[in-house]
């Protein structure tokens, strides 16, 4: 392999956070490219600068950690001829800012070293046919990053959806994609060194970080650009119109769906009915649709 072993660190620990401060990990590279649903380039930049706190732990993250050993055992049972081992944390031997923390390392019965990444999800939306590489794009970024760091050529994903449905996917190393990720990663670290703040974007974490940066309220006034004020006023009007129209379309989709969980149009996932705490199910956009819209409207 092309990597140096750094040790084993508990995700979220002070040691783990300190290590990530000096480089880029696999779960961060998608944010650098604006492809992460969990982190924006803006929010990640501020965390790397020490201006914003690390993302807080939440229930989905904790559930993923608790379920990881079980899903790893399911994968090992499905491939008894392979050796599946704990991985730890690695960095590239030359590009030491490139950090990888894969879930497991595999040795096949033919002696090949490969990766295993473990994921849990509420449902299978966004995941394609098992056995293919049809996985959410931010996970693809993460896996290609790990393969690039370790100098390996194949990764397996073991995914548990809905708490019981198990599936596997395979991602092969792509030199072109790895080079793209690496170039963007290097440029992002340059902006940190040169204190070049990213532009504000539409990501929820961008707004959250800005709120966290200014927790107090002073009895003061500021002058903002006229164009920004115009955009804000127009948005307030458009938002009301869009909200009303969306409510109607959601109601129509719900009427079509009845008790069904999923709605498709011409083979494409559109919506999903989800349980509400203490209430009746509600209609939400299919994750795959959300990602498609995000990509189509990406600057």
From TrEMBL:
Single Gene Ontology MF annotation: endonuclease activity
Protein name: Putative phage-type endonuclease
Domain of life: Bacteria
Keywords annotated in UniProt: Endonuclease, Hydrolase, Nuclease
Biological classification of the source: Bacteria, Bacillati, Actinomycetota, Actinomycetes, Actinopolysporales
Keyword presence, Hydrolase: yes
Domain spans labelled YqaJ viral recombinase: 15-151
Gene3D superfamilies referenced in this protein's UniProt entry, alphabetically: 3.90.320.10
Organism: Actinopolyspora xinjiangensis
Keyword Nuclease: yes
């Amino acid at each position: 392999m092309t990597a140096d072993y750094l040790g084993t660190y508990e995700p979220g620990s002070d040691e783990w956070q300190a290590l990530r401060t000096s480089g880029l990990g696999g779960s961060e590279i998608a944010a650098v490219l604006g492809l992460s649903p969990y982190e924006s380039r803006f929010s990640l930049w501020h965390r790397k600068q020490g201006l914003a706190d690390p993302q807080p732990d939440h229930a989905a993250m904790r559930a993923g950690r608790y379920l990881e050993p079980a899903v790893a055992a399911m994968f090992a049972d499905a491939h008894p001829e392979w050796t599946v081992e704990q991985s730890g944390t690695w960095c590239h031997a030359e590009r030491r800012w490139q950090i990888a923390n894969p879930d497991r390392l595999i040795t096949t019965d033919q002696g090949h070293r490969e990766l295993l990444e473990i994921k849990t999800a509420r449902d299978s939306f966004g995941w394609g046919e098992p056995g293919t590489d049809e996985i959410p794009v931010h996970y693809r970024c993460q896996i290609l990053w790990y393969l690039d760091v370790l100098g390996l050529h194949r990764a397996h994903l073991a995914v548990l959806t809905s708490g019981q449905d198990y599936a596997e996917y395979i991602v092969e190393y792509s030199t072109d994609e790895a080079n793209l990720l690496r170039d963007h990663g290097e440029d992002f670290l340059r902006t940190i060194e040169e204190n070049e703040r990213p532009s504000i974007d539409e990501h929820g974490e961008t707004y959250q970080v800005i709120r966290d940066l200014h927790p107090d309220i002073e009895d003061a006034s500021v002058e903002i650009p006229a164009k920004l004020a115009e955009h804000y006023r127009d948005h307030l009007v458009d938002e009301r119109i869009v909200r009303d129209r969306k409510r109607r379309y959601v109601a129509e989709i719900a009427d079509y769906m009845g008790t069904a969980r999923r709605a498709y149009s011409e083979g494409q996932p559109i919506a999903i009915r989800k349980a509400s705490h203490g209430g009746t199910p509600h209609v939400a956009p299919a994750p795959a649709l959300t990602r498609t819209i995000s990509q189509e409207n990406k600057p």
